[in-house]
Design brief:
The chain has an 11-stranded mixed sheet with strand order 1-9-18-17-16-15-14-13-10-11-12, with helices on both faces. The protein is built from 20 helices and 18 strands. It has 488 residues and is of the alpha/beta class. It has 2 domains: 212 residues, YjeF N-terminal domain (Rossmann fold), CATH 3.40.50; 270 residues, Ribokinase (UDP-N-acetylmuramoyl-L-alanine:D-glutamate ligase, 3-Layer(aba) Sandwich), CATH 3.40.1190.20. The longest helix has 20 residues. The two termini are 17 Å apart. Helix 2 packs across helix 3, helix 5 packs parallel to helix 6 and helix 10 crosses helix 18. The chain binds ligand NAX and potassium ion (K). The site of ligand NAX has 26 residues, from helix 1, helix 2 and helix 3.
Length: 488
Amino acid sequence: MRDAYTVEAVRKAEDVLMARGPEGALMQRAAAGLAAVCARLLPRVYGARVVLLVGSGDNGGDALYAGARLARRGAAVLAVLAADRVHEGGLAALRAAGGRVSADRADARAAIAAADLVVDGLLGIGGRGGLREPHAALAAHAADSAALVVAVDLPSGVDAGTGAVEGPAVRADVTVTFGGYKPGLLIDPGAGRAGVLELVDIGLGPELPPAHVRSPQAADIAALLPGPGAESDKYRRGVLAMASGSDRYSGAAVLSVGGALRGGVGMLRYAGQAGVVAKVLDRWPEVVATVLEPTDPVAGLPQRVAAWVVGPGRGLHPAAVVELRTVLGTGLPVLLDADAITLLAEEPDLVRDRSAPTLLTPHAGELARLLPGVDRADIEARRLAHATRAAAEFGCTVLLKGSTTIIAEPGRPAIVNPTGTPLLATAGTGDVLAGLIGAMLASGLAPRDAAVCGAYLHGLAARLACGGAPISASDLLGAIPAAFRALR
Ligand SMILES: NC(=O)C1=CN([C@@H]2O[C@H](COP(=O)(O)OP(=O)(O)OC[C@H]3O[C@@H](n4cnc5c(N)ncnc54)[C@H](O)[C@@H]3O)[C@@H](O)[C@H]2O)[C@@H](O)CC1
Ligand SMILES: [K+]
């Protein structure tokens, strides 16, 4: 698990340690860790051309002390100062180690263009908003250079707490972060700027509170996943009921059912209009299907099931409303997706008043319908805050789909899924996800764990499907077994 902490929590932990230990000890630990990662990344330290971008705060101090360590090992280190005053001790250490210092713009540009390694020590957790000048120009030179860019603590210009990027920001190949991950390193758009993450332990652990945000790794998912044991039969593995697709959107039914079957459901009971039922059975003969009567759309809904998935491609007509009320009226775990979320926006109390496990899986546009006064762009820019707010307002689990999928639940740390990829931004992949998570719910996982496992496998399957080439939702279905195998 990668655990991320708020800036306040990190500063508080640092204060406790600093009061206890010798002055500057934490910065020395940070700089030693940073220099070690830089040395590992360079083919050869001796003779390497290293440029440090140095801001006015302690982030610049880390860069200067690490630069001094590299200079002592024979690197040609140049510190480019972005402020009149920078960390004095760090500057003295760099000079004493033979490093050079420049505040000249033209000089800086040429040096960055010719560098092997650029160390971004402009701003750390003290940064506010997008980069101002001259920071922004230096970040642009670094982006134009072929040099490897290593960010100190976080890419400058990224908001440490949220991942928001409000203006120019550094794009790093590697980010060396200290004491604990910061949420902004795990959540887009910040995560996309951070590159590969390296955590340096500076001893904060015992002083940190519980994580604010967690990002599960393969072993965490493998430990959560239910696997069929010798005692399993189709009922114990879970019976899932699905109300997805319609005559107009029959593909949503075929894909969501496929997601559930590939997700390991014991039995799938599908209910829908006659035309969709035929298509579902044609593709997935293992499904037990019921044709719903247009005159009484809820009479034939499946009974004796372990969980429900409602919504993908289901439509917004009155029968869908009655169906949604009926399913939410049961005491079973329910996943609401797509059209069911749009309907819920009209009757939010259906979920607010519900005590049984409930999971909403909106994308940003659907979440905007649930949160009055918020638009899609606000949600994309501050995903963590909005997913958390929706979970609190509806008193249930919320999985916000998108560039970084976030799972929020009242009173628990939010989860960030690490396997997402832009390849998933194509029609039908959300239907597959709903089915996949539905299978996990039916097997008995709590909504948060089901959502975490489903999102992880979904992203992994997309990555495995075509090795980086564009994929369709059907390709994604085909790669789910490989994603499971990769975890076992
Ligand atoms: N506090 C500690 O004990 C430790 C701190 N460490 C380092 O110290 C960093 C935090 O240092 P600071 O609190 O000094 O803050 P920073 O070094 O992150 O930067 C703060 C400075 O940047 C300026 N600034 C803020 N936003 C700006 C913007 N958008 N454009 C241009 N300038 C801007 C501010 O005026 C302020 O002078 C951490 O990220 C980490 O790298 C590490 O050395 C580990 C120990
Ligand atoms: K930085």
